[in-house]
Amino acid sequence: MDTIYLDNNATTMTAPEVLQEMLPYFSELYGNPSSMHSFGGQVAEKIREARAKVAKLIGADPGEILFTSCGTESDSTAVMAALNAYPEKKHIVTTKVEHPAIKSLVEHLGTKGYRTTFVPVDSKGDLDLEFLYGSLDDDTAIVSIMWANNETGTIFPIEEIAAQVKKRGIVFHTDAVQAVGKIPIDMANSSVDMLSISGHKLHGPKGVGALYIRKGTKFSPLLVGGHQEKGRRAGTENTASIIGLGKAAELAAKNMAKENLQVAALRDRLEKGLLERIPNARINGNPDSRLPNTTNISFEYVEGEAILLMMNELGICASSGSACTSGSLEPSHVLRAMGVPFTCAHGSIRFSLSIYNTQEEIDFVVEKLPPVIQRLRDMSPFWADRPQ
Ligand code: PLP
Predict the structure, then answer these.
(1) Which phi and psi (to 5°) does residue 302 adopt?
(2) Is 15 in the pocket of ligand 1 (CB under 6 A)?
(3) CA 314 distance to own-chain centroid
(4) Domains present along the chain, CATH in parentheses
(5) Residue 319 has what DSSP assignment?
(6) Does the first or last residue of the chain, that is N or C, have fewer Cβ atoms within 10 Å of its Cβ?
(7) For the whole prediction, is pTM greater than 0.90?
(8) Residue 70 Cβ < 6 Å to ligand 1
C-alpha cells in the first residue's frame, strides 16, 4: 500500500535535490569548517553559501543568520537572549496558541519568577490585538508570537504587531517555523528582531534550524564553548544539514509562488470534497488568512484518534494536533483556546499538504474518508443522541 502523506506540518520529505547536496558531507568532505587547512575550509565555504541562501529566502543579511539544531533551539535561544539582555525586566508576552517550543518554555519561565501573559484568540484563531497591546509595559522583556499556527494554518499579522511592539522599545521574536518557505517573508522591511526557522518543515533535513537576529539586537548565546557561529552558538557545525537547509531555502525561494498555487488548489479540493460529503464537519481557523497547505477539519461526534487509526489502515497520514502534543487524548490547546466545542475539538484532523502530493491522492482521501467517519459515527452514542 502506498503512503499518502498529508502531515507536512509535522515534518516534510527531504527534497531529493537537498539530499544530493548533503551526501558528500557525510563521506569524502568530512572536514571541520573551523580547521585552518583547506580540506575543512571548503566546507566552511559551503556553509557560507548556505547562510547566504537562508538569508535570501527571508530578505536578511547573511550575518544575521545563526544556525541551530532545530526550531525549538532557535525559539529558546531568542527568548533567553532577550531575558539575558534585559535582566531587570521580568515580563514575557506570548499567545495561547503557540507551539510547545514556546508555550512550554514560557510556562516554565513562569515558575522561575517571570510574569507571563498568554494572549487569547477568537473563534477563528485570530489574536486579540487590543489585549496584546494593553498587556505591554515597561517590565516587558520580549514579545514572542508565531507567524503561522501549526495546527490551523492561521497566519497572524506579524509585521503590524512587530511594528507596534517595537514602538514601545520591546524585543519582538516570531516563531516562523511554519511560515518560512510557505509564505513570502522580508526582514529588510520589517520590525521583527528575531525569527525562528526549522529545516525539516521546508523539505530540508531534521536536526538543523536557524535564527534570524537583526543586526544590533542584544544577544547572548544559549550554548557557550567554542567560537563557532562567531561565538553565538558553540559546537561543531552540523555541516551536511546546514548545507541541506541552504539548498532547501534556495528551492523555496525559487519555487514558492508557483508551488503555493498548486498546493492550495489541492488543499481546497480536499476541503471541498470532504465538506460536501460529510455532514457535521467544519473548518477550524481563518480561511481568509491561512497557510496554503493546511486545513484543520472537525468531524463532530467522533474521536480524532479513531479517525487517524482508520486512515492509517488506508495508508493516509494526517494528524490530530501538533506532533509534539499527540500521545495525549486531550483536545488540542489551540482548538480549546479558540473555543471550539468539545464535540468538535475531539474529532479534529489536520491535513497538511506539500508539493509532493497529487490530485489522485486527494481524490482517494475524498472517496475513502466519508465512509470511515460514518462507520465511527454509527458506533458513537453521541452521534445517535445529537441534537437534531
Ligand atoms: N514551532 C512551530 C510552529 C512548529 O510547528 C514546530 C514543529 O512542529 C516547532 C516550533 C519546533 O521545531 P523543531 O521540530 O525543529 O524543533
Answers:
(1) -135, 155
(2) no
(3) 27
(4) 4-11+256-379 (3.90.1150.10), 16-252 (3.40.640.10)
(5) B
(6) C
(7) yes
(8) yes
